[in-house]
Amino acid sequence: MLPFLKEIDLTRNYLNGAIPPQWGSMQLTHISLLGNRLTGSIPEELASLSNLTSLVLEHNNFAGNLPPALGNLPKIERMFLNSNNFTGELPSTFARLTALTDFRIGDNNFTGKIPDFIQNWVQLKTLYIQASGLSGPIPSAIGALQNLTKLVISDLNGAEGPLPPLDNFTKLEILVLRSCKLIGDLPNSLRELTALKKLLVYSFLD
To answer: For this UniProt entry, which residues form the secretion signal (predicted)?
Structure first.
């Protein structure tokens, strides 16, 4: 089946149906299905794409839990899952996705908390968790992501909590923490974010 095909880009069409499991037996490095009408869940077979670097599924009607097997994608750098109907918790196997640079899961129906294992994603530059269904508080482990340039978290369920440590975010340009049930004082470390161009914090900070 098309043994030399590396990229599938069907962005912004009117496609229906599901992702063919047979794609998992190909040699794909890039999949983009952004902006279609696709349904179903992500086939576990995609976890066999050992050279996949980009998985863009945003703005569709995908649903179901994320397959834990996706944690076996050693080269994945971009995973865009926002604006779908995904449910369940983020699989613990995602702790192994250490090549990630851009991870987006906003506008879904996930459950559970933002996991501490995100501290393993030390290459991450962009993290979008807006209206994802996940609960707070924002884990302090997020402070390990020193390469972040964009951090957008909003509409968290669950308990209140303090602003996460910001001291290491020296490259951060965009910081949005809207409706995250934050409490406490604004930290002095905000002054150290010299690269910051946009700051939005809508919570209960004193």
So the answer is: none
